[in-house]
Amino acid sequence: MKAWLGVAVGLAAALAAGAAAADKIQVGCTPTNDCASAMVAVDEGIFKKHGLDVEMMLIALNSTIPAAILSDSIQIGGPTATVFLQAVDGGLDLVAIAGASTMTKASSDAVGAFVRNGVEIAQPKDFVGKKVGAPGLGAFLHVLFRKWLIDKGVDPKSVNFVEVTFPTMNDVLKSGTVDAVLTAEPFIARMTAAGTGTVAARYASDLARTEPIIFYAASRDWAEKHPDLVKRFREAITEAAAIVNADRDKASASIAKFTRQPLELIKMVPPNRSEPALTGGQLAWWIEVMKQQNMLQTDIDLDRIVLK
Length: 308
Fold this sequence. Notes:
D-Maltodextrin-Binding Protein, domain 2, 18% strand, 2 domains, 10 strands, alpha/beta, 308 residues, globular, disordered N terminus
């Protein structure tokens, strides 16, 4: 009897440990304000209230997030719409589980092509032949800029794009390694204050779109095996998104903590609007843009890529 009781207790402990481990989720995002809802959900104890143990992981380049998800280095990531769609097009079985940020006038006004001192760019065609750094080739800022060039009659192939992470942009510009970078606040304010250069184009504002920027994604296998975790994650994100959109101080504090940026810089720019609801139809424009740029080879099923 005692032996049986010992086995039962041990089994119960193992099951409890397994359940606790299952509730542990690592969420990977780049150092921008797009994943503010997850940052706030961590700092305000919202994930814990929903029975989740969530750790936020800082990812340098957005384009590496799908691989991190598939390798289980993270269970949920915040890829841009373009990185996600390219990954799906390439055969990775990813699924969007909740919205993070969407384009608004405020968020678009915070985006720019920042040019170092000594480089003259007065119009779109002046980017021809220049070396431009992007925080992830095929990611949001890169694809959006190429769309802007096309609309302005400039062939994107005439511009030399290279990958440059957000935190290194100022140093890379100062060294002359690149002529310009595709970036956003608070990095623009920081580089302007440092006297590194100026904004040459507010290309996102010119496009004036309202589609998703970043959303939370997981592997389909993980999401289907953990429907309860996905449900609780969505509930927590919805609760935190309301705080992001209404309480700038709390949102700014969480963004500064995660991105490791000075709070005073973060407060200069309102966080991107958090929109937890997401449908496949919201990605139709992105697919059109990416096909225009020959970035997609297959026809993506919009009804399949967002988890119901």
